[in-house]
Input
Amino acid sequence: MVALATYQEAEKKDIQNAYRRLLRHVKIKTDEERKLIRKAFEMSTQAHCEQRRKSGEPYILHPIEVARITAAEMGLGPVAVVSALLHDVVEDTPVTIENIREEFGDKIAMIVEALTKFDGMYDVESPQAETFKKILVSLAQDVRVVMVKMADRLHNMRTLGAMPPHKQMKIASETAFIYAPLAHRLGLYKVKTEFEDLCMKITESERYQGIEAKLKETEKQRARFVSEFMKPLRKEIEELGVKFRISGRAKSVFSISNKMKKKQIPFEEIYDLFAVRIIVDVPKTNEKSICWQIYSIITDAYNPIPERLKDWVSTPKSNGYESLHTTVVGPKGRFVEVQIRSERMDEVAEKGLAAHWKYKGVSSSNTVFDRWLNHVREMLSSPEEDAVNFLNDFRTNLFSKEVYVFTPKGDMRILPKGSTALDFAFDIHTEVGYKCVGVQVNGRQVPISYLLKNGDRLSVTTSKSQKPSESWLQIVKTGKAKSRIRQALKEERKQQGEIGKEYLMRKLKNLKVELTYENLEVLLKFYGVQSSIDLYYGIAMEELSLNRLKELEIEHGKLSIKKEEKPSSPRPVSQRKTNTDKQKPRLTINGEDASQYSHSLAACCKPVQGDEIFAYTTTHDGVKIHRNACPNAKNMLSKYGYRVMKAAWVTSFNTSFVADLELTGIDDIGIIQRLTNVLTNQLRVDMRSFSMDGDEGYFIGKISVVVNNTDQLNFIIKSLQNQEYVSSVVRIQD
Ligand code: MN
Output
């Protein structure tokens, strides 16, 4: 009895100590705030009093620690602290959300409710994508929800040892997949790094421990090196008359491991195990110029590597990160990365979002962050039903670096690197995207697939008759544009499918056939389509001909596919006829076999199987097949729309097409030979012609290649682009 009582006393003391430790980190301004935190602590302690964590300690220590993390490591205030204290109460105890609303008001009730909703996610078999979407929905409500959730996850990760191994793996992989990138995007670099390290500790524990041990071994060595590095700099920096401090912290185990894997080198050969960070304590108005002055002191003493200069002081990253990075050749010829920043920038880098709020009005960079949040809200507002699509799009945006471009009025737009002119159009406005027909970059007309470059000034040309097409999905990079295009296409397909369905019903009625489930199955098989939507759409688009229904057998209102005599027996050789016949592309025009038209591929745009195409009736030369992307298409479609017919490929592997590529790159002796070698020996491509022009070290070449379809063509383009001396490869038309 005595022992138990002592034990309980000791636990009470632990709880009191943890609570006191929490209070030390919260910036409390009013008595009311203090009372509110106290009340939350008491309610939570009371509610969780029966529970214990897997480790055996009282459960309440978990919410207290989560609250401490939000305050101490994320710099959040009392609202987040109160929410964190209460975050598991509704989920696990008799306390209801209404109780919380009564005691703490609407705001905190809302946050706790949002936290509760996606709690217990390790147990519930909900798909990750759905979880992530939920997190983002709440992010758009109040960012603190995600911050507390992240603190919760951080504490759970730190104390994961008590869990069984299979649960550890599950939680770790979920953390690596969702929480680490999210922390990165929110600018919580420290949290992100810790997430990555904690995950690696579980998923690759031996490798982790190996690197960790080596880091420890080399610690003293590093400290010595940093002081040697600073020796010639100290005095000059002191002469600037500003307070500064230096840190030479090693990089995270995870990032070192990554580098070893990527470069296939051992630990000993990694030259940038650590970065020297110089942090100056100066007012906001001076920070930029002081940073550059320090940069110049360093580069006077050591040779910089120019391409490693990263200036996020003039243009902060879109998550708000500001810092000046450079790499120099330090003592003993070793490369040293130097990061120069102010105390304010450092706090923003460590605590992310919360620090932004703190400096709101002072720093212009939080507008960048607001823009990102707006972007999240926008993505959420589009009724994208598929969480996996949504997640993929979002992740692309999380990981990409940015490109900075300008509107005609000079407003800066930030898009993910790799974005195209069409992305820009969608970034301006969804409607501008939908109606985009062309884009001018710095006054020059470019294709909508043009890759944006920093500093481009763009203006978009729109047309009322323009509509998004399937191929746009390949062109755009941003999640926003993708989801909007998909939305429009789906809408379009559904709408147009309605007509197709009507046609089909009418035709079937004439044949006295009902559209039963069985009959629908037969039709799908007969037309070779996946779903009823595809079927209706195909009919509406006249890609599938209802005349072909004649080929079906009808018995008592039941459809079936006629058995051909011997469909699988090989054709007699004589039927193959000539070589030219074999190579002729197979097409349908208005859903019928194209052979009934005198038709040929247009010479202006040279379609290849797989391209989106249309048929155009000429006055003297039969029907010509053009690519939708043909430069003449706009003209033909707008002026002679009545001559245009639908055309579609009938997949065939015996046909061949000629496509023209233009490539540019760095001229060198033997360049023709090298290119020829890649094409003929490596890719086994037939070439029709090859011409090359050179000028001042650059070359422009034109190659005609023979391919079966666009997949092959794209593969060739990609392979050529991968050659180091090639800078661009594009498909051209005359
Ligand atoms: Mn929790």
